Amino acid sequence: MMREQIAASLEQAFSQYGFAEPGVAQLKTACNVSLRTLYKHYPSKEAMIVGALEYRHRRYLSFLLHESCSSGVQSVLYIFSQLEKWMQEFAPHGCLSMNAIAAFPDNPQIKAAVEKHKQDVRQILAQQSQRDDLATALFLLHEGVSSTWPLLGKEAVHSAQKVLLQLLKEDS
Q1: Are the CB atoms for 105 and 157 separated by under 8 Å?
Q2: pTM of the predicted model, to two decimals?
Q3: Contact indicator for 16, 56 with CB cutoff of 8 Å
Q4: How many whole angstroms from its chain centre is CA 127?
Q5: DSSP the chain
Q6: How far apart are CA 82 and CA 86, in angstroms?
Q7: CB 55 within 8 A of CB 31
Q8: What integer best gives the mean pLDDT of the chain?
Q9: Domain ranges (residues) in the chain
Q10: Are 76 and 70 in contact (CB under 8 A)?
């Protein structure tokens, strides 16, 4: 329970401040725990980042599929609508996972956490669309929205949804 609460606070701190700025003392304060407790659960800043990414991963997947249509085109469009809400509410600076990789490109634990997240998102898009053959294309659209959100905002989502409709219509 405490580990999960700390991970939630770390996710918020990294989302708000990025990965370079907050030191461990600032993260301890953000988590409202002692330094000893923080290090007991996450023994390094990199472990804290992985904990935050894993927490966010679970939260994001749940958010994407919350009240989703069963499957097919409408389900994929719904996922992109959820992505828009997510970006507005929780990720105005872009994808936290990609920001983590950019900040720590050589860290194998962070890279593994990001790879798992991305693979799971791709798998959900394949399952929900019922189109394994389009999983990569759908994933690339998802990632394009996530990475361009800080510049394009809603326009990124609406453009992706138009392409989705064309892609799923032409290949059905």
Answers
A1: no
A2: 0.91
A3: no
A4: 18
A5: -HHHHHHHHHHHHHHHHTTTS--HHHHHHHHTS-HHHHHHH--SHHHHHHHHHHHHHHHHHHHHHTT--SSSHHHHHHHHHHHHHHHHHH-TTS-HHHHHHHH-TT-HHHHHHHHHHHHHHHHHHHHHHT-GGGHHHHHHHHHHHHHHHHHHTHHHHHHHHHHHHHHHHHT-
A6: 6
A7: no
A8: 93
A9: 2-170
A10: no
Instruction: Give just the sign of the alpha carbon dihedral 110, 112, 113, 118.
Output: positive
**Quick check: 76 pLDDT over 80?**
yes
Least confident of 17-21, 35-39, 42-46: 17-21
CATH superfamily membership of 2-170: Tetracycline Repressor, domain 2 (1.10.357.10)
Give 50: exposed, middle or buried? Use CB within 10 Å, 0-12, 13-18, 19+: buried
